[in-house]
Design a protein that fits this description.
alpha+beta; four-stranded mixed beta sheet; 3 helices; 6 strands; 24% helix; globular
């Protein structure tokens, strides 16, 4: 357990889609960040709204609905931004574009959420 305002930077890549109570996890990220701290967040994103369905319980169902056996939802970048802002974060969505055959093997398009804890 981290103390309040312990970290300047938290990297939260491909975590929140696995967490049952993501609102609680987001509040915890806010709590542990120092003022002006930054949280870099990435998940699989879809267009439209966040897709959650509490009746989905089996790994097979989760694979069909969320794209992976241990995912509990699929976020939209806008929906995640809204949840983060509700917790008090200042949020910026950045999109990075790479050439299809880039030497680093990055995806052609990657969206990253930068959530800052205001002072």
């Amino acid at each position: 357990d981290a103390s309040d305002e312990s970290y300047d930077l938290v990297i939260c890549y491909h975590i929140l889609e696995h967490v049952a109570d993501d609102d609680r996890a987001i509040r915890e990220l806010f709590r542990i960040l120092k003022m002006n701290g930054i949280c870099l967040i990435q998940t699989p994103f879809r267009d439209g709204d966040i897709y959650e369905n509490l009746s989905i319980h089996t790994p097979e169902q989760r694979k069909v609905h969320f794209g992976q056996e241990d995912h509990l939802r699929v976020y939209s970048a806008t929906g995640l931004k809204d949840r983060l802002e509700s917790a008090g974060f200042r949020v910026e969505k950045r999109e990075y574009n790479e050439a299809p055959e880039n030497i680093n093997g990055f995806k052609n398009k990657e969206t990253i959420i930068i959530a800052a804890k205001p002072a």
